[in-house]
Here is the input.
Amino acid sequence: MKRQDYGFSEDIPVAPCPVDDSAAMGTSFAGHDVVVHLVGIIAETRTKTFEQTVARGTENVVAACRQAGVGKIVYLSALGTKPGAASWYHRTKFHAEEAVKSSGLMYSILRPSVIYGPGDGFVTLLAKMLTSAPITPVIGDGRYRLQPIHIDDLAPMIVRSATEAVADFQTIDIAGPEKLEYLEILGIIKTVLNKRRPKLFLPVWLMRRVAGILEKIVKPAPLTRDQITMMLAGNTGDITLMREIFGIEPREFKNGLLTYLGK
Here is the structure.
């Protein structure tokens, strides 16, 4: 696979290897000072589980860093990560964070909320649905809150965490300036796209049953019970520390959308 397939220029070396192979990663990491660990899944497949990919995978990354003499790990975790979290996704993210913290290496842990931008797996899908479907399905009452962060605001924070000491040994919530209800997010996307679509509210109990069936017959399922749990719990945080450390004022959601959906 060519470097360009990863979105990198020829000036940046790329050495793909699986997170279940510490030895291969150790070879790839050799000669480098920092590893930025972004690996994660939002739904389990037949061969990749949260436990294997998120929790054990991060343990393997840590082991490979030690083997290669890497000095720092920058780990992209997730907002809402905590011990005893309601979702299996967040519980394994917490396990991964603990592996990074106990690694003995310098580290920075960034916990972003929903990340949006060209080609993302959330807002882009909503935009396609609002463009092509005559109605917009909403799970529950749609009042759960999210705090979307634009990729162009997140990326510089990852770079600074890797290249400077500003975020060393810190765990930082990363999010946009607005805590928006899901219904508000839909409304803003509709405004940017100049679309009007009626909403269809779907009972949570029904969608949990549908998700349970999908999980048994499709891998990865387009909707999982774990995802519903996370959505209903909301995904917001305190970005005071983010602002202090990085000096970044993240863009408002509508302004971020206009950079790529409003064209």
